[in-house]
Amino acid sequence: MKSIHKILGLTAVLSMALFSCDENDGIRSANTTVANPSTNNANFFFINATTGGPSLDFFVNGVNLGTADLGAGLTGGYKSVAITTPGLNNIANTSIRAKATSGAIGGVLGSNDLIFRATNTGIGNLVAAPNARYTFIAVDELERPAPLRTFSINSTTQALAADLTYYNRTTRAQISNDAFRALSAGEQAAFVSIGTIPAGVSDPGGARFYVITDSYPTDAVIAAAVTANQAFIRFVHASPNAPGVFVRLVPTAGGADINVVTTAAVNVMSVAGGFSPSAGSRTATAPSFSTITIGAASNSYTVEVHTTPGFTALALAVPNVTLQAGKVYTVVARGLVGGTGASALGASVGVHN
């Protein structure tokens, strides 16, 4: 039986994310005291849901908070880090980055770190709030190209103006809106809009962060869930080329299915998913974790990902996934439809407590 703490060989992934700062931050071991004038702390969790990426170490303010293999989250849940109080001016007080545990991240980033970018035209730190909880998810293909700013001809003035860029999820080609409109309907089906890319975009391509400001159950709610044999779960779709998906849990030993996603979940790093332009990091406040009744202190399920609302088109099935009462889970769909090996459609699972 697979533990929920381990990588799930899924075809889909759920998720949310952020980026950090320059390449020369000092790196400290996790047991090093953070020099910080404030007694305030924020809480950080990390999930590795890239497409075909290596194991990653997660750093906050230069401190290595731990390692997440591909498909997994940090062991032991949230890590508490001392921060400077943001104050009235919302000081960007927290640098975030991920580094390959061994060697390089590879792809477009090469030997560079995956860093938080506060805007899509710059590099900056996170404004972390005291006592807040954040989940950082490393997502996307290692070979994702840097977003291309394209131009179309204004039909009235005949002048060039910045316009939508369209991206081919198979060939990774990027074309202008004019070029897209010149394609046949069949050819257009291979492309998706990534929005109007701003001048000076700083997104280098490759893996990037999706960051969630968590709405987390209170200690009292978690204690009650233990008594009631309940767990908490949310799903994040971060597969670069998978369609909208629906998710349910099917008990291994029989019983009622648990529907987790009944309205199609789409890639959170896409225009369709509300991220426009799709450049750089994305930050979001996710819905609360869904409360599910698992019927015992521990129970085993098959996680099913379907492409139809009636759960009649199975895209991915992960058997023998153990859920425990009082635990809080994030499941992230990752990888590619049609991908192979580490790039195959799969899932990353993080346990927050």
List keywords for this structure.
3 helices, globular, five-stranded mixed beta sheet, 2 domains, disordered N terminus, 353 residues, 5% helix, mainly beta, 23 strands
Walk me through the structure.
With 353 residues, this protein is mainly β. The chain has two domains: 2-144 and 204-347, no CATH class; 150-193, no CATH class. Helix content is 5%, strand content 37%. The strands form six sheets. A five-stranded mixed β-sheet has the order 1-21-20-16-17, with no helix packed on it. Strands 5-2-8-14-18 form a five-stranded mixed β-sheet, with no helix packed on it.
Characterize the largest beta sheet: strand count, sense, and whether it forms a barrel: 5 strands, mixed
DSSP strand count: 23
* Spatial sequence of strands, sheet with the most strands: 1-21-20-16-17
Number of helices: 3
Percentage beta strand: 35-45%
Please tell me how large the radius of gyration is: 21 Å
**Average pLDDT taken over every residue:** 87
* Secondary structural class: mainly beta
How many domains comprise the coordinates? 2
